[in-house]
Structure to design on (265 residues):
């Protein structure tokens, strides 16, 4: 006896558990399996859809792993020169102050070649949202050491590990930006577990809501893996992230409503 599984009530919308947001296109992501970029893209798209602002958003992506972000978001996108996304976002927001403007940047972009643009946009308090993916490495260009690379961490340009005496200390750019008067909301999140994905989505939603209220810069760091650059499997990379990245880059809010968050002893 054959069973008929084409039951109409199963296919009705109220029984859908999850569906892909329409703010993402159907293009296949080019990111490596296990990378946090794809998850973060989805969270941004879901927030845009839930806020009903798809036609009012302009994204800015510079050079890096996210250079093709315009292929995946069904919104207006602009491409920026390497590191210059905050400067371009500033210009767009000043011309179109009613729009929601966000940048999407990696650590080699935001914290290295783009440090100047990042610092000054945040210090001025431009009413934009900055999404910062920190995987402690130059992912797209060959796995070189980045400003965020941990002490002792192996990269293609620090094959014996980052030597702090020779190569300097890692740059905790998010802590630095939290001290600037123009930042209103500064937080560090991650997306390698379901619970952390939910927290990251709330942070991204908060960042866009702040922009609606003209609060100044909202800065969301997402600590991510780079299994290709780290030369690890996705599972190994997530374990390495938890054991090494998170102790150095602890998760949580650094600044809320323009006030630094006091950490308990």
């Amino acid at each position: 006896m054959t069973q008929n599984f084409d039951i109409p009530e199963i296919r009705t919308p109220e029984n859908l558990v999850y569906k892909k947001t329409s703010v993402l296109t159907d293009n296949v992501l080019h990111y490596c399996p296990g990378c946090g970029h794809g998850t973060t893209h989805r969270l941004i798209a879901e927030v845009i859809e839930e806020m009903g602002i798809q036609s009012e958003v302009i994204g800015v992506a510079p050079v890096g792993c996210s250079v093709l972000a315009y292929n995946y978001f069904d919104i207006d996108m602009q491409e920026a020169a390497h590191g210059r996304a905050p400067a371009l976002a500033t210009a767009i927001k000043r011309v179109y102050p009613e729009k929601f403007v966000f940048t999407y940047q990696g650590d080699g972009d935001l914290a290295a070649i783009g440090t100047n643009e990042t610092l000054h946009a945040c210090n001025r308090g431009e009413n934009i949202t900055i999404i910062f993916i920190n995987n402690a490495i130059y992912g797209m260009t060959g796995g070189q050491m980045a400003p965020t690379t941990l002490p002792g961490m192996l990269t293609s340009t620090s094959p014996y590990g980052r030597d702090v005496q020779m190569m300097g200390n890692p740059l905790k750019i998010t802590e630095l930006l939290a001290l600037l008067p123009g930042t209103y909301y500064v937080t560090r999140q991650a997306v390698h577990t379901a619970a952390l994905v939910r927290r990251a989505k709330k942070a991204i939603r908060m960042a866009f809501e702040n922009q609606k209220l003209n609060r100044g810069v909202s800065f969301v760091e997402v600590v991510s893996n780079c299994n290709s650059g780290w030369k690890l499997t996705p599972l190994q990379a997530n374990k390495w992230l938890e054991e090494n990245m998170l102790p150095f880059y602890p998760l949580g809010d650094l600044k809320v409503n323009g006030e630094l968050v006091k950490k308990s002893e």
Summary: The radius of gyration is 19 Å. The beta strands are 57-61, 76-79, 100-106, 129-134, 183-190, 217-223, 252-256, 259-260. The domain at 29-254 is CATH 3.40.50.970 (Rossmann fold). The first strand starts at residue 57 and ends at 61.
